[in-house]
Amino acid sequence: MSTPSSPTAFSAAVAAVRAGRPLDEAVDELLSQLTREERLWLLDGDLPFWQGMADMMTHGYNLTPYPMGRVERLGIPGLLFSDGPRGVVMGQSTAFPVSMARGATWDVELEERVGTAIGLELRAQGANFFGGVCVNLPRHPAWGRAQETYGEDPVLLGEFGAALTRGVQRNAMAVVKHYALNSMENARFKVDVTADDAALHEVYLAHFRRVVEEGVSGVMTAYNSVNGEWAGQNEHLMEGVLRGMWGFEGVTVSDFIWGLRDAAASLRAGLDVEEPFRQQRAEHLAADLEAGRASWDDVDRAARRILTTQVRHYAALTEPEPPLDVVFGAEHRALAREVAARGMVLLKNDPVGDAPLLPLNRDALASLAVVGRLADVANTGDNGSSDVRAPEVITALRGLTEALPDTRITHVADDDPAAAAAAAAQADVAVVVAGYTAADEGEWVGGDVLADAELMALFPPPGDDPAGQSFAAFMAEPGAVESMSGGSAGGDRASLRLRPVDAEIIRAVAAANPRTVVVIVTAGAVITEEWREAVPAVLISWYSGCEGGRALADVLLGDADAAGRLPYSIPATEEHLPYFDRDATAITYDKWFGQRLLDRDGHAAAFPLGFGLSYTSFALADLTVSAPDGDCFTAVVTVTNTGSRGGRHVVQLYGRPTGIDAAADDFPTRVLLGFATVELAAGESARVTVPASTRPLRRWTPGGFVPASATAVIEAASYAGDPGAVTAPAELALV
Length: 735
Hints:
Keywords: Hydrolase
Number of helices: 24
Strand content: 15-25%
Largest sheet: 6 strands, mixed
Radius of gyration: 26 Å
Pfam families: Fn3-like, Glyco_hydro_3, Glyco_hydro_3_C
Oligomer: single chain
Family: Belongs to the glycosyl hydrolase 3 family.
GO molecular function: hydrolase activity
Strand order of the largest sheet: 1-2-3-4-6-9
InterPro entries: Cellulose_deg_GH3, Fn3-like, GH, Glyco_hydro_3_C, Glyco_hydro_3_C_sf, Glyco_hydro_3_N, Glyco_hydro_3_N_sf, Ig-like_fold
């Protein structure tokens, strides 16, 4: 949406700011023209609650923008919400690979291009507010919505969230979520997460801080409570940390429907907008103001932030209005394919005969067996609020069929190890596609939620409202809960392993054909110990978006290098992970998870953070490091492609604080500081600059951050703990 062409109070404010008037002056003048009723109107959604719920129930989630605080009299456009993050949820948009797949590219420039495409599709369809910058840290890989975030490390999360924000905000306001400590799905409406200040600032808030510094327009609070107070009315998090410590100047918004429990308390605590409908604030806030439970100063504080965010965005908007045909256009589909291929992670590629099995030689491939229930399924991720309804999804089977028109391809979809083995025995190569769907992991609204009296008390009484009566009747029908959540059973994963029948099929196929590739569809870590040794090649393809099948063919056939790197570690056993109870009502988060926990406890990862094979090989040499400038420094390292074909490498920069014992000092022995990608032809070398931060080398104290040690060893590596890492000749001074 653009600024209205006819003169209005809002467009005058925008024009004044563009002409050089201070933003706060223009906003104060605009605010002064609002009636008290209009100021309250800014603080929640515009749709009546039961109308909005009925529309969501009968037509679907977020098919068009959810308007919040639009004031037509003054031309205030309001916050016109569309969800994400794998694309624009509205309409029929481009389904990009899920965020975790994009994190596996380790390429922030590529993510910024995705953000630009999303912003264009969002704006073309009438929205201006993108709720899809998800940077929650998946403390445990069973988290059902791990697909919506980028990886296990705060640096990776922060840089990717910042990149998506930069891209989106060329055309729309970006919103980072869910603030904070949201990494349990089944218990998200009831769990109280306890974390001390050190864990909060060193780990769970660090990436939010980075995205705020990038200039994100909005912050969405989480459903869960943090240290005893619901996130949507947590004054310490919103006013203390977000605004007081970090200087955030944008707008805070609740998560949908159950994102706050007390209208007045949320306003006092610093929550600006209740999303997405007229709900608790519309019902209670006027009386709360009358009774003194909140003040008009609180209202004006929120209203000023809401107006400031919009005026700032439209005053900075320089991009022309995009045409509607940009949505799911050829350029964005090509980008989705590029991203999907770049993110696929090759975990194993053993020789079969005299060469590694992958890439496959299409000219020598007369027959191919494609095995698995997921091989010909449009499986782009969960069916919850992040679902993107792309008009077409290219499955693995279709992608391979298109890429191999002269190859005889046999597909076995049934869970039948014998049939799969028989097909594999008659083929030159077998590809087994296994993993998860929305039934296994994803957003979840279970029956106990809609039977929870405390949560249902947050709904306004239906009274005589026909929409409210209709909703009540709907909820009495069988299957209503599943319909509300898009049919996604999802939730937190019950297991980190493939189904037993998948393991049987893999072993049977591998026994019948030594040239077997296993392709894993997943978001989080999958433990593969019971079958991995049986096969020569394993590739993680993720939920790979609308062009995923073509991207898979690109990687398997070597048209694209295997360039993805794990955005998290994969343990050898569940026992090496933090405690996790998906039904918990209370849990404590400390600093220890993922690669950091494995390092502390001396457990070797099955695959460490940052791991991934290429179709070529790389060597690192001659690392130099600049002196820190504030929190930032740069490293420069020589990368050489030592193989026989072109490829792409990810240089990862790690810091090892000197004299640290992880258990005794409650601080990791190795932390990621930065990363960069480089593409090189066979035999080519390049000096690669890696931007990095010293923040992960600092610990939190009551007085703020201090260095964990006086110096740190800096190493450039291909993954965490890489024995081929090169070390800077001198330690980096931190004090």
